[in-house]
Amino acid sequence: MTELLAPAGSEQAAYAALDAGADAIYLGLKSFSARAFSENFDADALSRVICYAHVLGAKVYVALNTLVKASEIGEFFDGVRTAWEGGADAILLQDIFLGRAIKERFPEINLHLSTQAGCCNVYGAQLAKAFGFSRVVLARETPLSEIAKISQIVETEVFVQGALCTCFSGQCYLSSFAGGNSGNRGKCKQPCRKRYRFDRAGYEDFAYALSTSDLMVGERIEELRRAGVTSFKIEGRMRREEYVSAAVEYYRALLAGEKGEAERVRLARAYNRGDYTEGLAFGQNKFLSRKVQGHIGQAVGEVTFRHGTPVFRPKAPVSKGDGLKILRGGREVGGAAVGEIADGFAALSCRERLAPGDEVRLTAAAGNIPPLHPKKRTHMPILLEFFVGKPPRAEANGLVFVGDAPLESAKNAPLSREDLVTCFCKTELPISPEISVSSDGVFLPKSALNAFRRAFYDALSARFTGNRQLVGEFPAPPKLVPVHGTRTARMGERREAGDDIFILKPDDYSSIRAPEEGENYLWLPPLFTAADEAQIAPHLHDFDGICCDNAYGILLAKKYGLKFFAGVGCNLTNAFAVSGMLGFSAYAALSKELSRAETDALACENTFSLSGDLKVMDLCYCPFERTCGQCDRKKFYRMTDEDGRVFPVLRYRTSDMVCRFEVYNCAYLKESGAICSRLLDDSAKEVRSGDGTRGHAGRSVL
User: Fold this and answer.
1) pTM of the full predicted structure?
2) Is the CATH number of domain 298-364 3.30.70?
3) Of 117, 189, 473, 658, which one has the fewest beta carbons inside 10 Å?
4) What Å distances lie between residue 331 and 31, 155, 310, 631, 665, CA to CA?
C-alpha cells in the first residue's frame, strides 16, 4: 500500500488536504516544529484535526523535528505526550538518540525519523530501525538506487512536491550564523533565496545563485513506487490551503494511473517556483531558479503590440484584473495586470516598458487559485433508541452511548422520527449519518435532546482520537561528567605539529593518501552512497577511523572495524544525544549552534567544540549547473552577497568524479573557550574573509 502525505500548516490546510483525498497529513505543534513560522497547532486544534482525519480513515503525523537543547527536554517530552495522547499516528523526530530514549521507555509510540536527520543510505536506515523508528523520511538528495535499497530495510517516505532546501538535509547553518535564526530550530530566514555572485566567468552578475526550483516528481512517481517507497510526501506547511488541495489532487490523479494534465495546470497556478525540477533523486535537472525568485505562475502568452498598446494572446483562460509576471530572457521585468480583453487579445497594464516577445505568466487571479474540494464525508450508520422508561440510547461505530435518565411518555407532541433525524444530522464530523430510529412516542425537551446529541458526538469524537494515556514518566537525561584539559583535532588536508588527532578532508576522493604518523581519520561527506563506499573502501585500512556529519558513520565504521568521530553536523545538543553518540563513537563534536554555557554543560570526555573555518552548507549539486565544458576547476570560489560579504565555496570530487561543494561562513569561528577539546577546521583558510566571529558563544541560537 502506498500513502499520499500532505502538509498542514494550519487547521484549514489540514481539512483541505483531507477533503482532497490525502491518505495522511503531517503538522507541527506550537513548539519544536521545523516550520515555526507556520500557524501550527495547539492541543484543541490537534484534537479536532485528528478526529476529522480518523473519521475519514486518514492518519496524522506530528512533527517535533527540531533540535532540542538540554534546557528544553522537559517541554519537549510534554509535546510528545500531548501529541501521542491526543491520537497522533506517529511522531517525527530529528534527534535519533532522543527517539531511542523515547522508544525504550514507551515502546507503543510510533516514531518516524525526520528528513533533517539526513538518512541517505542503508547504514542510516539500519540504525534508525535498530533505534525503534518504523519509518525514515529520506534526505531529499538520496539517489533512486539508494531509495530502493533502503525501502527493503524500513518504510520510506520521499518528497515528491514542493520547496527544496539548497543544502543537504539538516546541515544548513547559513541562517543560523547570518542572523541567529536556525533552520535546525525551525526558524530559517532563507538566505539561500537572496542574490549572490561568483568569481567565475558567466556567473559574475548577481543572481539567485542558491535558490532551488520547486520539486515536482510528476509521473516519475511510478519509479518511486516501484522502488518500494511507502509514502509520497508533499512539502508546503508554509503554503495556502488552495495549494495543498491542488497538490493532493494532482498526485491523487497520477497514483490512479491518470495523466493529471488539468490538475498539473491548477497546481502550477497555485504556486510554482522555477518551473519545477524532478530533484536530485533523478539527477540534477533544472535544479536552480537563478533568474526568478518566488512564484513564477503559468505561461499564458507573449507580449506583442496592437495600435501601440502592449497585448498578448492568452493561451489559457484569463480575466480582467488578473495578476501577471513579465519575464525577458528568463529574468523578471516586473508585474502586470490583465486589462480589457477583445478580439482574442488581452491588454497589459504594466509600469515597466515592455518589449515584443516578453513572456507573460499568470500569477494571481480570482480564477487562479484552485477551488477547494467539497467537504469529504463518510457514511456512518447511527442507531437511535428512545423508549419510555429507558434512558435514550445512541449507537455508532462500536460506541454505545446511554443517557442519564429514563424518558417520559409524551402527553401532547411526541418526538417524531423526523425530529430525531434532523437533530442528529447536525454534526461537525465529516460523516453522512444513516440514522435508524426506534421509538414509542416519548417526550424530551429540545434543549435536553440537543445536549444528548452533543454528548454523543463528543464521545464518538473521543473514540476516533484514541483516548490514549502514557503511564509513567519520560526518562531523565543521562549524567555527563565534565572534564578539564584540551586536545586538538585538526580537519583539513595536512596534519600540523602538535595535532593530537588529524581528520583528512580530500579534495578528490580518487586520490587518498593517509598521513603516516598519529591518530588519523578520513572525513566522509554527509551524502554517502554505495558508489562512494566502493571508492573509499580500499583506503580505509590506512586510517584509524572515519569522521562524518551523519549518524550513518556509526554502522559504516563498525562494518570496517574502525573508530568513529562524530562531526559537528551530527547536531548533538543535549545529554541524550551526547551520551548516546559516545556509546558508539570514539569522539564526538558538539553542535556549533550552542552557546558557550550550553557547550560547557555538555562537555565531557572525548567531546570537542569547533573553531576555525565554519561550514554553513553542504551542496550536493553543482551551482554552476554542470557546465563542465566551461569549468575552470578551481578548488575555491568566492561567493559574494549584495552587502559585499564573501563566502568561500570549496569544490571537491567524490565517486565517478562528481563535484560537490561546501559553503563557508564569511568569518571564521573564534575559539569559544569551552572546556572540551577543540576541533579545528582549516578547510577554507586560504580564502577567509572578514573578521572572526564568536558565533553563538555569547547568545543562544533561536
Assistant:
1) 0.94
2) no
3) 473
4) 39, 41, 19, 24, 28
